[in-house]
Amino acid sequence: MDETAESMHVRLRRGPGHMRALFARRWVRVLAVLALLAGVAVGGFWMVFARDLPSAERLLAYEPALPTNVRDINGQPVYAFMRERRVELSFDEFPKVLVGAFLSAEDKTFFDHGGIDYLAFGNGVFEYLTKMGSGERARGGSTITQQLAKILLVGDEYSPARKIREAILARRIEAALTKQQILELYLNQIFLGRNAYGVQSAARAYFDKDVGQLTLPEAAYLAVLPKAPSTLTPERHADRAMARRGYVLRQMEANGYITAAQRAEADAAPLGTVAKARPPKRPAGGYFLEDVRRELIAKYGEKSDRGPYSVYDGGLWVRTSLDPKVQKAAEDALRDGLMRYDAGRGWRGAIATIDASELGAGGAWRTGLVRANVGVGYDDWRAAVVLDKAGSAATIGFTDGSTGTLPAWGAAMPRRGIGGTAFRYMKAGDIIAVKRQGGDWVLRNIPEVSGAMVAEDPHTGRVLAMQGGFDERGNDFNRATQAMRQPGSSFKPFVYASALDAGMTPATMIMDAPFCVYQSARLGRKCFVNFGGARGAGLQTMRWGVEQSRNLMTVRAASQTGMNKIVATAKAMDIGTYPAVLAISLGAGDTTVAKLTNAYAMLANQGRSLKPTLIDLIQDRHGKTIFRADMRPCERCNMKDWDGKPMPRPRIRTKQAMDAMTAYQTVHILEGVVQRGTATTLRDLNRPLFGKTGTSTGPTNVWFVGGSQDLVAGVYMGFDKPRPMGGYAQGGTLAAPIFKQFAKVAMADMPVVPFKAPPGIRMVRIDRRSGRKVYGTWPTNDPLAPVIWEAFKPESEPRRSIRRSSLAARGRPKDPVAAEAEAATARRAQRAKDADFMERQGGIY
């Protein structure tokens, strides 16, 4: 059956679906638009107010800015580098009475809210609206969490935007931290006046005690300060502070922290604040600490933008090599030496001046005096400003605001270079140095001459003391490390050390006679002379030349050795880099007292290289060591108990800057400088000492560098702008006495030990006059004995000999110093001839 198939076309049409039907309704479209607007509003709100706020993770890791604490060689705190006075404590270290006082004063519902007290916040908003445009500032509305948020935001902008950001951050803080952690941060961060950040610093600033020692009324007073410390100061607003403290005490009673009896007793107590936070005693070693600060800044930076270990924010703990006893000895010895030189020269004039407009009754002079930052050195001297001068007395003022009287007789010293009394030239506004004498004050003079002193441990290179001038306050130029000066004869030991390396011995005979060299066609001949024009003494031993500091013997030895070797020695000992010219052998090349002292310490250390260090150890705020000066491993050093074996010591890894035997020979020769030479003033210290005096041309600088097996020190004295100090100025008469005064204190408790000779040194008896080996007699303790022990390298001792009978036949040899005294008349007669000779030869050095 045929059937005709017919095509069928089906057309499908989508009917109105659920979503389309839903959006067809008007109210749904309105809700969608509102939701979109809300999303945009939330996004905009976040972009404006919350985008750059700290995250919860950052809050958990937040660490407040803390000062860097510096300790001395004994581990005792000596100073802190800070811009904000802050001490961080844990929550458990805050006394309950203090916590109760702050909660009662600032946020009694702290443990109940989630970061915002909405009722108080609403009141704050209402007060802001009602006072808008009036110039008054709205108060209240902030919880402790919000106050902490304000501190973390860094800023106190008075605006609704800041308040919104504060509230957002407060909620984040509550979500990230416990209530105890929030209180800990708050009590460590809050500013309470007197540059005190945190309650521990405030307790010290207002009551000079730690938080754990605070009484109830004292804790209540600190709790009144967060709102406005400047309006509740005990000096100017004591009544207002007492009233506010009473309010806090009543709140503490109402909140159950104290009883009514405790409140009444505390309310009756006076504020009890100290009139001014006790100023910290000026630490010994201001120049030392300033160099430590500079080194830390170079390593870690000043602020936290340089990293987590910055000097003023990082909370570092720095262990230094500063020895307070040695430092005080250096300070006193140097100051006394400068004062001895300056004595009798008259008053130099005012140290600084204050503008006369600041001398009125308002007390602006006190600010000017503090700003001048004048250092007067001694602890019993004070800086003062002349407020008024009338008749026979002047009224003077001090930095603490007190005043005193300076009578005319107390300023009777002559005016330097002019004549007349200092009182006559004194005028209002002059800043002067004074010292108490009875009920009055007397004028003192800051010496114009200056200098520096450094003391070092020759075993390790640790700098134990550093004094870079009379006083670091107002003048932080550290002459110990920054003043480049000619060392004069104190450089000579390194000339002779080079000669010893080149084959000479301490007994080598060197001619002490006029020595001239041809420099060039332009410069002609150059002739050298001994200090003071002393005539040559003929052939003498090297030892004698060093002990008597003979220039002619030095340049002759330098010429024979070669200046290239000598300047190489100076470079290896880190004294300086110099040209290879003969004048360098007499100390014409500039160096610092710190460098030269370190070079002498290397001599005492048997020629091993030393790097001077001020810092032993640095730890971060958590106690992790981030720097050690000595990084050598030491096996068995950290054992819990002693194992009975020899004391463990780290291995010596320093290089030899000089041959050990050469270094010892040089030290042994320099012991003779103290026994018989230019530093005999030190002989009565009765301990093995070595050293060398120095006097540069002019003389413009005087030096002494030396010490014992365990302590080496160097000192120089001179004007900051070099000029002649006077013909009598010598290292032996000015610098060596400073070292002597220092050593009497610094070495008082040190064991008396000889200098240690390295392996290979041969000690041989010689006649110190001729340098010949001696048989049949022995050295004695007499420093002028004809026979001494001399140090020689193997196979270098003298081959010539002299017997006891020969010594007896000629008698005890006369000391060269005595021989020169007897020949004084002959020298005077010869001096004119010598002068003519030297003039013909083109001058002298």
Automatic annotation (TrEMBL):
Pathway recorded for this protein: Cell wall biogenesis; peptidoglycan biosynthesis
Give the EC number(s) under which this enzyme is classified: 2.4.99.28, 3.4.16.4
Q: Which residues form the Penicillin-binding protein OB-like domain?
A: 347-449
How is this protein positioned relative to the membrane? Single-pass type II membrane protein
The record, for SUPFAM superfamilies, names: beta-lactamase/transpeptidase-like, Lysozyme-like
InterPro entries attached to this UniProt entry: Beta-lactam/transpept-like, Glyco_trans_51, Glycosyltr_51/Transpeptidase, Lysozyme-like_dom_sf, PBP_transglycosylase, PCB_OB, PCN-bd_Tpept
**Main location (coarse class):** membrane
Question: Where in or outside the cell?
Answer: Cell inner membrane
**Which reactions appear under catalytic activity for this entry?**
Preferential cleavage: (Ac)2-L-Lys-D-Ala-|-D-Ala. Also transpeptidation of peptidyl-alanyl moieties that are N-acyl substituents of D-alanine; [GlcNAc-(1->4)-Mur2Ac(oyl-L-Ala-gamma-D-Glu-L-Lys-D-Ala-D-Ala)](n)-di-trans,octa-cis-undecaprenyl diphosphate + beta-D-GlcNAc-(1->4)-Mur2Ac(oyl-L-Ala-gamma-D-Glu-L-Lys-D-Ala-D-Ala)-di-trans,octa-cis-undecaprenyl diphosphate = [GlcNAc-(1->4)-Mur2Ac(oyl-L-Ala-gamma-D-Glu-L-Lys-D-Ala-D-Ala)](n+1)-di-trans,octa-cis-undecaprenyl diphosphate + di-trans,octa-cis-undecaprenyl diphosphate + H(+)
Low complexity bias (residue ranges):
818-827
Keyword annotations from UniProtKB, A to Z: Antibiotic resistance, Carboxypeptidase, Cell inner membrane, Cell membrane, Cell shape, Cell wall biogenesis/degradation, Glycosyltransferase, Hydrolase, Membrane, Multifunctional enzyme, Peptidoglycan synthesis, Protease, Signal-anchor, Transferase, Transmembrane, Transmembrane helix
Q: Which residues form the Penicillin-binding protein transpeptidase domain?
A: 451-742
**Pfam families (UniProt xref):** PCB_OB, Transgly, Transpeptidase
Record domain Glycosyl transferase family: where: 75-253
Task: Give the residue ranges for region: Disordered.
Answer: 799-845
Family indicated by similarity: In the C-terminal section; belongs to the transpeptidase family. In the N-terminal section; belongs to the glycosyltransferase 51 family.
What is this protein's name?
A: Penicillin-binding protein 1A
